[in-house]
Amino acid sequence: MELICDSFLSINSSLELDRVLSTILEAIRALFGVVGSSIWLKDARTGEVICQQAAGFQRNIVKGWRLAPGEGVAGWVSTYGERVILSDTNTDMRHFRKVADTMKVELRSLVSVPMRVKGTVIGALQVVDRQIGRFNASHAELLEALADASATAIENAQLFKRANREIAERKRAEKKLKESEKALKEKSIALEEVNTALNVLLKSREEDQVHMEGVIVANVKDLVTPFLEKLSRSPLDEKQAVYVEIIQTNLANIVAPFMRQIPLKYFDLTPTEIQIADLVRKNKTTKEIAEILNASSKTIEAHRNRLRKKLGLTNQRIQLRDYLTTLI
C-alpha cells in the first residue's frame, strides 16, 4: 500500500508531460517487476494510438509506434474501453506481434487497461512480461487505479503544455504588436517631420510670393504710375488721351489681383497713414478718426487724399474703405 501511495505522489508531482509519463512507467515497473511497460495515447487528429512513452527492454523501439484504431491490444483497449489480460499472447489474435518481433524478444504475458479522463478513453496503460500467466485480475485492478491517476496527471500536463504554448504565442503576438506600434510611431514621427518641413516650405513660398507681388505693385506705383499721371496731365490729343487711359486701366487690372493680397506696408505708407487706413477700414468717419488721433478733420482729410493717391485710387470711383477691406 505504501508503494502505491508513493506511486500516486510521484505521478502527480510534475506538470511536464514527458516527466509525468516517465514517472508513471517507473512507478509501474517498481510495482509489477515486469520486463516492459508503455503508455499509448489517442491522436485526436488521425484516430491512431501512439506509444508516447515506454520503459524496460529496448523501450526506444516501442516509443513512437503507431497503431491503427482497434489494432493490437493497446488499440483495441483504447477503442472499446475494456481491459484485456492475456496469459499467453500466442493464443490471442489481438496481440500485435510486429513490435515484439522488432524487439526480438518473446513477450508471453500482457495486461492492458483503458485510461480515462472524465469518462472519455484517452489511451491505454500496458505492461508485458516473458513469463506465461504472469498477470491476473488483481494486477489489472491495481493497474486500473494507476491508470485513472495517470490519466488525470496526463491531462493536467497537457493542459499545462497547452497553456504554456498559448502564453508563448501571446507573447510573440504582443512582441510583434509592439514592434508594429513602434514602426508606426516612427513612421508617424517621420511624416510629422516631413509635414512640418513642407508647411515651412509652403509658408516660405507664400511669403516669397506675397513679397514678389508687393515688389511688383510697388515698382508699378513708383516707376510707372507717376509717369502715366504726368503724361495724362500733359497736352494730349483725344486719341493719345484714350491710349493713356487704356494703359492706366489695363495696368490697374494687371496689378489688382496682387493688390488684394498685398499688406499696406508695400504701399510706402507712413505709420500715421497706416493707422488712419486701419480706422477707415473699421468704418470710422473722418470726425471720429480726428477725435481718436486728436487731430483736425482737415488733417485727416488730407491724409485720406494721400492714401487714395498712394493706393492708386485717384480719379477712381471706388470708396476708400471698400478698397481697404480687400487688402490684408
What's the arrangement of secondary structure elements?
Layout: H1 2-11, H2 17-32, E1 36-42, E2 49-56, H3 59-62, E3 66-67, H4 72-80, E4 84-86, H5 97-103, E5 109-117, E6 120-129, H6 137-233, H7 238-259, H8 271-281, H9 286-293, H10 297-310, H11 320-324
Helix pairs in contact: 1-2, 1-6, 2-6, 6-7, 8-10, 9-10
Structural class designation: alpha+beta
Helix content: 55-70%
Q: What is the tally of helical segments?
A: 11
Fraction in beta strands = 5-15%
Average the pLDDT over all residues and give the rounded result: 81
**N-to-C terminal Cα separation, in Å?**
103 Å
Strand order of the largest sheet: 3-2-1-6-5-4
Explain what you see.
- The longest helix has 97 residues.
- The protein is an alpha+beta fold and 328 residues long.
- The protein has eleven helices and six strands.
- Helix 6 runs antiparallel to helix 7 and helix 8 crosses helix 10.
- Helices cover 62% and strands 12% of the residues.
- A six-stranded antiparallel β-sheet has the order 3-2-1-6-5-4, sandwiched between helices.
- Strand 5 and strand 6 form a beta hairpin.
